[in-house]
Design goal:
By secondary structure, the chain is α+β, with helices and mostly antiparallel strands. The chain has helices spanning about 5-95, 100-115, 130-135, 170-185, and strands spanning about 120-125, 140-145, 150-155, 165.
Length: about 190
C-alpha cells in the first residue's frame, strides 16, 4: 500500500474518530445541559414557591398589623366617647339629684329591694340623701354612710348576706358596659 493511501486512511479514520468523539461530546453536553436545565427549573420552582409563601406571610402580617392598629385607634375613640358620655352623664345626674324625681327614684329602689329581701332590710345611703329615704313608709333601718360619691342606695337583707346595689355608679357601669358591648360588636 502506498504511503499516500495509508496517510489518507489514517486521516479518514482520525476524522471519523474525531466526529465520533465530537458526537459523543455533544451528546454528553446535551445530556448535561438537559440535566442542568431540569435542575434549574426545579430550583426556580422552589424559589418561586418560597417567594410566594414569603410574600403571602408578609401580606398576612401587614394585614394583621394594620387590623390591630385600626382596632387600637377605634378603641381609643370609644374611650374618648366613653369619657365624654360619663362627664355629660355626671353633670346630668347632679342636676337630676336636685329634683323630686331623684327622691322618687330612691324610694322606688328601697321599696323594690325591700319586697325582694323582706323585713329587716337595711338601707345604706349617703348622708346628703338620708332625709329623702327616711321620709318613706317602708319598715327598714336606714344607715347613713358614704356608699357612692354619685348617689343611690344599697339595700341588704336583715342578715347581710344578700344585697341589691342601686347606686348611680352601678347603674352607670351597667349601662356603659351595654353601650360598649354594642360599640365593640361593630368593630369585630
Amino acid at each position: 500500500m502506498p504511503l499516500n493511501e495509508i496517510l489518507q486512511r489514517i486521516e479518514e479514520e482520525t476524522r471519523k474518530e474525531e466526529e465520533n468523539i465530537i458526537r459523543e461530546a455533544r451528546s454528553k453536553a446535551d445530556a448535561i445541559l438537559n440535566e442542568a436545565t431540569k435542575k434549574s427549573e426545579i430550583i426556580f420552582d422552589q424559589f418561586n414557591r418560597k417567594a410566594k409563601e414569603d410574600v403571602e406571610n408578609i401580606r398576612r402580617e401587614k394585614i394583621s398589623s394594620l387590623t390591630l392598629e385600626g382596632r387600637n385607634l377605634v378603641e381609643k375613640e370609644i374611650e374618648k366617647i366613653e369619657r365624654k358620655y360619663e362627664d355629660r352623664l355626671r353633670t346630668e345626674i347632679e342636676e337630676f339629684k336636685k329634683t323630686e324625681e331623684y327622691k322618687k327614684f330612691l324610694i322606688r329602689a328601697v321599696e323594690g329591694s325591700w319586697k325582694k329581701l323582706g323585713p329587716g332590710s337595711v338601707v345604706y345611703v349617703n348622708p346628703q340623701d338620708a332625709d329623702k329615704v327616711k321620709g318613706s313608709n317602708i319598715p327598714v333601718t336606714v344607715i347613713t354612710k358614704d356608699i357612692d360619691p354619685i348617689g343611690g342606695v344599697i339595700v341588704t337583707s336583715g342578715d347581710g348576706k344578700i344585697f341589691i346595689d342601686s347606686t348611680l355608679s352601678e347603674i352607670m357601669k351597667e349601662r356603659r358596659e351595654k353601650i360598649l358591648k354594642i360599640a365593640r360588636s361593630y368593630i369585630r
